[in-house]
Amino acid sequence: MKIGIIGAGAWGTALAQAFAKGGKDVILCAREEEIVASVNGQHENALFLPGIELDPKITATGEPMEAAACGVVLLVPPAQYLRAACASIKDIEEGKPVVICAKGIELESGKTMTGIAAEIIPQATLAVLTGPTFASEIAKGLPSAVTVASSRLWDAENICAALATRTLRPYASDDLIGAQIGGAVKNVIAIACGIIAGRGLGDSARAALMTRGLAEIARLAEKLGARRETLMGMCGVGDLMLTASSMQSRNYSLGFQLGQGRTLDDIMAERQGKSVTEGVTTAKALMVMAEKYGVDMPVAQAVYKCVGEGKPIDATIAEIMDRPLKGEAA
Amino acid sequence: MKIGIIGAGAWGTALAQAFAKGGKDVILCAREEEIVASVNGQHENALFLPGIELDPKITATGEPMEAAACGVVLLVPPAQYLRAACASIKDIEEGKPVVICAKGIELESGKTMTGIAAEIIPQATLAVLTGPTFASEIAKGLPSAVTVASSRLWDAENICAALATRTLRPYASDDLIGAQIGGAVKNVIAIACGIIAGRGLGDSARAALMTRGLAEIARLAEKLGARRETLMGMCGVGDLMLTASSMQSRNYSLGFQLGQGRTLDDIMAERQGKSVTEGVTTAKALMVMAEKYGVDMPVAQAVYKCVGEGKPIDATIAEIMDRPLKGEAA
Q1: Is A330 close to B149, i.e. CB distance below 8 A?
Q2: CA distance A146 to chain B (A)
Q3: Which of A163, A177, A232 best tests the B interface by mutation, with the highest count of B CBs <10 A?
Q4: B282 touches chain A (CB under 8 A)
Q5: Which of B203, B233, B330 sits opposite A171 (nearest CB)?
Q6: Is B83 left (phi over 0), alpha (psi -120 to 50) or beta?
Q7: Cα radius of gyration (chain A)
Q8: Are the beta carbons of A125 and A156 closer than 8 angstroms?
Q9: A18: closest CA among A132, A166, A146, A120?
Q10: What are the two backbone dihedrals, phi and then psi, of residue B296, each rounded to the nearest 5 degrees?
Q11: Is A325 on the interface with B (CB under 8 A)?
């Protein structure tokens, strides 16, 4: 069974490489003509995954429907482009498994990734692939594990079987909502953890904040109909602990720089055009969701105060530490 | 209300300092006469927490019953000495809150810390204090959060109220078993994570392994009568993510050195007498528990094979990666 991948950024290309090295045929769809040419000709994606020699079992195309004709189709655009990616395969075959690998919430609508896909390609069997992965590591063939979720466990298990390789281990779940919330919210918690580290407040404080952040994620997920325990898997705890403890994460490193006393404008100006720091925008979307669903999210709120309202970091930290404890579960 | 602390190692002394800086009177009981003298005279515990100027509100004593006369009593011995620490206050007042801060399982009996205490001081109101903390950070007044668990939530909440300071935030739980399992098992998972890091297998693999390790901890805890969700708090996820990602952890750094190719004998010889690496012995205790309760613990088992049976690391890693996925929950 061929695997079609739509979106040839670092993550889409890394997944293509992992599957191809695992013996599977892959069609990788890129928007940029030069990527199509360089993957097919030089077996490299010089733009988004430079320095990795791609497996010849990866064929690139500029036609989304060509990738969508494969047995399993992965959508790997940036979160805010998922709507467009779905539209590009809107005539996809009835029942075809479509696995969304973008993490996030659509800012305009506040919708989850599968919420968007269900509007545009309702005929597909929707799933998500999410978990603790750095593209560069997966592209090099280092071991990793992810959550693959679909509404029916049967579908999730079959997709796992189709995607599994010796180095990429997918775990099946039928909690489609739960699997998406962790990946979307973790970037905000990662900014908070970065701030703590940058401010020199120690590893104990960072671990405590990460844990409270996880509790917030779980509360929100539960309100949205997910199961709490889903957040204990790769898509929750796993993804959070990777993102919120590594300078490889753009969100964590942003927080770290804020904690060291740099201004947001300054940091963002330096990054302009080079990378997206999703947590900054997600923080705002979360404030809307927290209010809409009546969920207490003090860590996300503190991050929003710092990055959205320009409140001084020390005042925000003090506010969090002085919150009364009564009524908060351990 | 005075706080009595029995055990003046790094952690007991750090807790004493945190409480005293938070405005509470503390009686710290040390076995070593020179510690009693130096805490009372020079306001320092030069042996176990050098370089920290202790608050004068800490009074040291050599008499355990003097500390046990305080309103709340903390027991902070090494895990394998808890039995002796309990015996030293066996005539403690009926109903007195006794908070155990040692993490581990008694190797001889396979019992939890509160299981031991319930045998010797059944008249006390037993609780545990556990979570992600490095003693040196807490002693410096850096922020932290912990789980305080007792069988009745009411007791846990009252103990939290008695112990809370602005920098040390306790969260109450009534899951006494769940709160203890994370702290006991995490050291074994930390060795595994260290091995992965030392072997150069990447942050993604380490996060994945930590997550699977958490699933093992939760499975074991559930079999022992705990609630799964307890493991999502400070005492589970929090403690694990701190221990399994920092070279400050003796267990993680042991794994790291093993992963780099050094032998266990070599590493242990270097550490001899200076520090205890609890994960090595806990791994063996876990094998007994896993079999007794019929719990699948592949990560702990792999660690035991490496540190207990001398199996080569690469062969053990390969075995874990080739485990069939069917039937494992995400």
Answers
A1: yes
A2: 8
A3: A232
A4: no
A5: B330
A6: alpha
A7: 20
A8: no
A9: A166
A10: -80, 115
A11: yes
Alpha-carbon gap: A63 to the closest alpha carbon of chain B (Å):
31
Active site residue B305: no
- Which ranges constitute the DSSP H helices of B99-238? 113-120, 135-139, 153-163, 176-198, 203-223
Residues 116-135 in B contacting A (C-alpha not used; CB under 8 Å): 131-134
Burial B212-223 (b: 16+ CB within 10 A, else e): bbbbbbbbbbbb
> DSSP E strands: which ranges in chain A?
3-6, 26-29, 58-61, 72-75, 97-100, 125-130, 144-150, 168-173
* Distance in Å from the first CA to the final CA of chain A: 46
Which residues numbered 246-265 in A keep a CB inside 8 Å of some CB on B?
246, 248
Give the Å distances, CA to CA, from A37 to A28, A59, A60, A61, B292: 12, 10, 8, 9, 59
Residue B120, token pair as written in the block = 């010797």
Q: Which amino acid is at A252?
A: Y
Catalytic entry in B24, B103, B186, B305? B186
Convert the pLDDT of each residue in A184-232 to its tens digit. 899 999 999 999 999 999 999 999 999 999 999 999 999 999 999 899 9
Report d(CA A175, CA A131) in Å as an integer: 14
Amino acid residing at A171: Y
Q: Closest Cα of chain A to B135: distance in Å?
A: 9
In whole angstroms, give the CA distance from residue A194 to residue A250: 10
Nearest chain A CA: its distance from B318 CA (Å): 9
Q: What is the pLDDT of residue A109?
A: 86
CB contact under 8 A, B211 and A234: yes
Q: Is the per-residue pLDDT at B326 higher than 80?
A: no
Alpha-carbon distance A247 to B73, whole Å?
41
CA–CA distance, A149 with A145 (Å, rounded to integer):
13
Residue B212 sits at the chain A interface (C-beta within 8 Å): yes
Its ipTM equals 0.93
CB proximity under 8 Å: A 175-194 to B: 179
* Given A103, A186, A223, A292, the catalytic residue: A186
pLDDT digits (tens, 9 = 90+) for B120-179: 999 999 999 999 999 999 999 999 999 999 999 999 999 999 999 999 999 999 999 999
The answer to whether A302 contacts chain B (CB < 8 Å) is: no
Cβ distance B234 to A329 less than 8 Å, yes or no, reads: no
Q: Which amino acid type is present at position B172?
A: A
Say if CB A316 and CB A295 are below 8 A apart. no
Token code pair at residue B255: 């794994």
| C-alpha span between A58 and A243 (Å, rounded) | 29
Residue B153: name the closest of A321, A327, A212 by CA.
A327
Could you tell me whether strands B125-130 and B144-150 are parallel, antiparallel, or unpaired per DSSP bridges? antiparallel
Q: For residue B124, give the H/E element and its range.
A: none
How far does B297 lie from chain A, in Å, by closest CA? 16
What DSSP string describes B284-316?
HHHHHHHHHHT---HHHHHHHHHHHS---HHHH
Residue B274 has pLDDT above 80, yes or no: no
For residue B239, list chain A residues with Cβ-Cβ distance below 8 A.
207
Contacts of A84 (CB under 8 A, 6+ apart): A77
Task: For residue B146, give the DSSP letter.
Answer: E
